[in-house]
Amino acid sequence: MNTSRIPFVAGNWKMNLTPSEAIRYLDEFAVLLPTDHAYEVALFPSYLVVPFVIGNLLKRRDIHVGAQNLSDRESGAFTGEVSAPMLTDAGCRYVLIGHSERRKIYGETDELLAKKLSMALQHKLSVVYCIGETLAEREANQTFDVIDQQLKNLIALPHESRPNITIAYEPVWAIGTGLNATPAQAQEVHHVIRTTMSDHWNDTGKNMRILYGGSVTPANAKELFACPDVDGGLVGGASLKPDSFYNICRAAE
After folding, report:
1. 85-102 confidence digits (pLDDT tens)
2. Which of 80, 98, 119, 185 could form a disulfide with 181 if both were Cys (CB 3.0 to 4.6 A apart)?
3. At what angle do helices 110-122 and 143-155 cross, to 10 degrees?
């Protein structure tokens, strides 16, 4: 981890934790996490839980809140969707875009994700943009071809939007499977991502944060975060328990 880039640890709760469970979680997590930590922390609850989390964290400005997704439309007759203005008005600072579950289960294409990127940035949301290859793609030696394709949406962004982007590399084969990329595998891909973004974005690409996401746990976080091009983690299952997530956050120090 490069100390010139502020480490970032994000907890993606996915479709877990009810409002009451989230409040109990935060009561415990807020006691564990000191306010003077030298890394950034963000929680990504489900839409319904977002206002409960934000309301509980009014006195903890050091813990940010983000949404797990957003609509590519600003408003209108789109039943079940949530817009960027709704998220910013609720108090969200971040939004995830391109998570592998959205790509795979809901068929979100690069074209749709480009529209979501534009909408989020237009409304001043900072984006954690997820990329990564499947097991079949890795076994076919297509990892870097996939990464190059998925980075095209970011490369095309205007200069003024670029500082608001964080990349999360999440090898799809290591999400919720118990498998995990080794630190060497993670570093190899992170280095290629950083080199690619630096080639197109110059210093902004060199200094952007790139997170690792794929079965991050308290047991492997320190070794992963020690890699020179890994700036923290996008944490799934291990973020659902306050003590587990806190121990991962500590690894970012």
Report:
1. 999 999 999 999 999 999
2. 185
3. 40
Beta bridge partners, 9, equal 41, 233
Q: What's the predicted TM-score (pTM) here? A: 0.96
Q: Which amino acid is at 188?
A: E
Task: Look at residue 38 and tell me if it is in a domain.
Answer: yes
pLDDT mean over 176-195: 90
Residue 19 is which amino acid?
P
Query: Does 34 reside within a domain?
Result: yes
Question: Domains in the chain: how many in total?
Answer: 1
Pairing type for strands 126-131 and 210-212 reads: unpaired
Query: Does 63 reside within a domain?
Result: yes
Please give the Cα distance from 127 to 76 (Å, whole number): 23
Confidence grade of residue 180 (pLDDT, cut at 50, 70, 90)? confident
Catalytically active residues are 99, 170
Residue 214 lies in domain: 8-250
CATH number, position 206: 3.20.20.70
